[in-house]
Amino acid sequence: MEERLMGQLVAIVNRTAGKGKCERLWPQIESYLQSLGLYPEVHFTKGAGDAINLAQKAASNGVSAVLSVGGDGTLNEVVNGLVGYPDIALGIIPAGSGNDFIRSLGVNSKDWQTACQKIAQGKTKLIDLGQINGRYFINVAGVGFDATVVNCANTWGKAHFPSSLAYVAAVLKTLSEFRATNITIKLDDQVVEDIGWLVVVASGQYFGGGMWIAPEADLHDGYFDVCVLGDLSKPAFLRAFPSIFSGKHLQHPAIKLYRARQVTVQADRPMLVQADGEVIAKTPISFTVRPSGLRIYC
Q: How many domains, in total, are found in the chain?
């Protein structure tokens, strides 16, 4: 862990995150940052992709740190704008719906005050990133059922339910229509074939509004934790589903856990792919670890 002096600071704020939650919180967050001696130059996003461009511009201008203020979607964009700038530190202030990544740093998803304090303390460390088709993710990516749930939550669930309830509702809605399929997974030099519901590729530990999908995942070990859910009935899925919030789902015989630096997934029929809570592609797909790819305040 490294302590860094605070220089020029930029905050990228997505006021629409969390159905307007971020806009309501931002005046309090800004005031609190100032009470900690932090006076960032503030930029508000106006649409999809803005946070990438704003982060890239800040990095190219030589700032010392960039703050992501919003949810995990905003964070993902800021991360993609900062790749290639390992000397610029990323500060994460949760103000969106799920705020899953920050849980892996030991911070409650609603505790923006502690997140601000960590930035003010100036301690940083390098963490791994995942890469998919030239795009990066900081937390969790997935194929199949979870990506279909993410799509449902983003297009339907979040419009009707708050935070984690949106994902639970999306799980139940998706369950009625989803079918497992034959999948082939290459994990470094190992090949696994199965009838599968999902393949989760995790650098962080949480996704889906607090689901503890990968309890042993380490942000800086150079590996993904890969969770594969094989074939099981829908009633069995429903019985096992609550255990994902405590991490006990890994005890289920239909779930297998692997560790790998590179993961490739193919399926008999195209399956959706999500990264950091956004659907970005379909199978076939490959995931690669980028060790020590980003510096964050922690």
A: 2
Asked if residue 298 belongs to a domain, the reply is no
Residue 1 is given by DSSP the state -
Q: Which domain holds residue 270?
A: 140-291
In Å, what is the CA distance from 82 to each residue of 36, 54, 98, 278, 293? 24, 10, 22, 18, 9
Phi-psi region of 290 (alpha: psi -120 to 50; beta: other; left: phi over 0): beta
For residue 281, is pLDDT > 60?
A: yes
Query: 149 φ, ψ to 5°?
Result: -65, -45
d(CA 161, CA 6) in angstroms, rounded, equals 39
What gap in Å lies between CA 160 and CA 233, rounded to an integer?
A: 28
Label residue 71 exposed, middle or buried (CB < 10 Å: 0-12, 13-18, 19+).
buried
- Let me know whether 159 and 87 are in one domain: no
* 109-117 own/partner pairs: CB under 8 Å, 24+ apart: 109/210, 112/25, 112/29, 112/32, 113/32, 115/91, 116/29, 116/32, 116/33, 116/36, 116/38, 117/36
Domain identity same for 73 and 15 = yes
CATH number of 95's domain: 3.40.50.10330
Give the pLDDT of residue 52. Answer: 98
Are 258 and 210 contained in the same domain? yes
Is 72 a domain residue? yes
What's the pTM? Answer: 0.93
Provide the β-strand partners of residue 280. Answer: none
Is the pLDDT score of 15 beyond 80? Answer: yes
DSSP characters for 99-122? --GGGGGT--TT-HHHHHHHHHHT
Q: Are residues 286 and 149 in the same domain?
A: yes
Among the three residues 66, 92, 121, which one is the final residue of a domain in this structure? 121
Same domain membership, residue 191 and residue 87 = no
